[in-house]
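#structure-requests
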Amino acid sequence: MSKLSDVFMAGIEEIRKSWGWFVVIGILLMILGGTCIVKSQTATTFSILVLGWVLAISALFWFIGSFQALGWSGFFIFLLNALMSGVVGYLFIRHPDAGAAGVTMLLAVLFIVGGLFRITGAGVIQFPWWGWTVFSGLVSVGLGIFLLATFATATAYFVGIAIGVDLIFDGGALVAFGAAIRSLP
């Protein structure tokens, strides 16, 4: 057990030397997140285009992989995955606004269904402080309903705002981590 703690402490000391980089990267992520929120429509379109290119490139790899598995019964699964990834990637690249609408709809349904599962699970199990999980589920359901109610306008900006908020919180966590690591004895 002491060997594991020695390894952990050696790793912490190595990371502690770079605390400033964590703070700098965290601040840059927060600035990028703020930019994504301010320019949310551009960030949404850019994100969908990047996702489209990632899918298109992965389709190429799946296609090549399908021929590597030619003698195996999984050939058609690889080929089908390549075709689906390629078609969706192409559609996202060709029509990023429609792709944003699809992603927004998918997220709205995910928020509603995930929130309902959290509410139900917490109500049934009733673990300590389960009310917070119910509250989290209610927030998710509310966000999903809000997205569906404002779907026509939300598709243009929601993905960009969601990415921006995520970047701000990730950046804040890195800044806090860097500060905490610096203050270790």
